[in-house]
Amino acid sequence: MLKKLGKYELIRKIGEGASSTVYLGCDPFTQREVAIKVATPEVLQDPEKGKLYTRLFLTEASLVGKLNHPHIVQIFDAVVTDKLCYIVMEYVAGGTLEAYARPGKLLPVDHVVELVFKCTRALDFAQRMGITHRDIKPANILLSGRSDIKISDFGTAITSAQ
Which domain holds residue 114? Predict the structure, then answer.
């Protein structure tokens, strides 16, 4: 595993998807933990897919980075080149709702109603700013405490102007 990515120190891998890996990192300037979403090298090596993915990565970073809402993960930094793409964002320690989306692990209904309300407020805010998430699912909703959430991974975000 890499030890550093730009100025960011990598601590450990915390997630993995089809086209990216997420690491827990440390920003030495602010002395805070951050999550760093790194595009997999295979995606970037394909000339056609790499160009598209680079554009989507940059779009996510620039659009979502403008959103300031208590239930949307904040983006701090982004690096997008032909060979390397990563987004540095707020680290949310509680894991995803995916763990509670199976029989035997379901959350109480009153808790779910509260979480859904917070998600709808965040998604409404993003929509009013011209951004549509288009991939809302339990894996993209992070738990931040017992009854608080942060929506992440706007990778397929579009603006209403498109």
Answer: 4-159
Nearest to 67 by CA among 8, 115, 126: 126
Higher pLDDT, 151 or 59: 151
- Render pLDDT for 109-152 as a digit per residue (tens, 0 to 9): 999 999 999 999 999 999 999 888 888 999 999 998 777 999 99
Q: Are 56 and 106 in contact (CB under 8 A)?
A: no
Instruction: Confirm whether 135 is a catalytic residue.
Output: yes
pLDDT above 90: percentage of residues in the chain: 58
The CA-based angle 65-95-148, given to 5 degrees, is 70
Q: How far is CA 70 from CA 29, 129, 142, 150, in A?
A: 23, 15, 12, 7
pLDDT of 161 reads 45
Q: Beta partners for 134? A: none
**Site of tokens 């993915």:** 53
Helix (H) or strand (E) holding 101: none
- Give the domain CATH number at 129: 1.10.510.10
Instruction: Write down the pLDDT at residue 127.
Output: 92
Structural domain total, the chain: 1
Per annotation, catalytic residue among 27, 110, 135, 148: 135
